[in-house]
Amino acid sequence: MRLVRTIAFALAATAMGATATAEPAAPKSMTAEFGWIVGTWTCHNSQAGKPDWDSVKKFEWIYGQKTLKETSTQSDSSGQFFTTVDPNTNSFKGIGLASGGGYIVWSYEGMVNDKATEVGYLIAGDKLIPVSRSDTERLSDTHFIIRDFRADTPTGKGAALDTEDCTKNAN
Q1: Which residue has the higher pLDDT, 15 or 158?
Q2: Burial 67-87 (b: 16+ CB within 10 A, else e)
Q3: Is-contact 135 115, C-beta < 8 A?
Q4: Measured between alpha carbons, how far is 37 from 68 in angstroms, rounded to an integer?
Q5: What average pLDDT does the structure give for the chain?
Q6: Around 156, how many Cα atoms within 13 Å sit in the side-chain half-sphere?
Q7: Residue ranges per domain, the chain?
């Protein structure tokens, strides 16, 4: 299983453009980027044509604060998501596994002015197929919103999927 994860992550890094740059930027920092999100959050979710629902997200450090683990649960499913820094591209990469057997890998450049975009992919052979885009907005250290969309196409932005409005629980 570890070998499969290593291969999947290597494929994802390669397909997402893992190359050396002539002038390296300052290394990305997991704690600087994600330190504010560690803890437990309650999220109100909405999706057109479906009843609203709530979920719980727990963010915690693993591997000496080199990887952020997110566990997301709702009434009928759960998932775990892992994010780390890819030193080859100086960007954040991740993989998510769902209780229904699905997976997704992603690339994330980091927040700028408390906003960020993450692109989700499925692995097809040695290629990554874009399947989603998530726009995150950090409103404060205790409130963020994620807006999920289908993947963008050459003809335009992807259709809206759902919105997660999350508030940090008091610890």
Answers
A1: 158
A2: bbebebeeeeeebebbbbbbe
A3: yes
A4: 10
A5: 88
A6: 3
A7: 2-16+30-168
Q: Decide if pLDDT at 112 tops 90.
A: yes
What pLDDT is stored for residue 5 in this prediction? Answer: 43
CATH architecture for segment(s) 2-16+30-168? Beta Barrel (2.40)
Which amino acid is residue 86, in one-letter code? Answer: D
Using CA atoms, how far apart are residues 66 and 79, in angstroms rounded to an integer? 20
In this structure, are residues 131 and 121 in contact, taking their beta carbons and an 8 Å threshold? Answer: yes
Type of residue numbered 113: N
Q: How far apart are CA 92 and CA 14, in angstroms?
A: 13
Question: Which residues are registered as beta bridge partners of 21?
Answer: none
Q: List all residues 6 or more positions away from 75 whose beta carbon is below 8 Å from its beta carbon.
A: 53
157: CB partners within 8 A, 6+ apart: 133, 149
User: Would you state the pLDDT for residue 100?
Assistant: 82
| pLDDT band with cut points at 50, 70 and 90 for residue 135 | very high
Residues counted in the chain: 171
pLDDT of residue 85: 96
Q: Which amino acid is at 82?
A: F
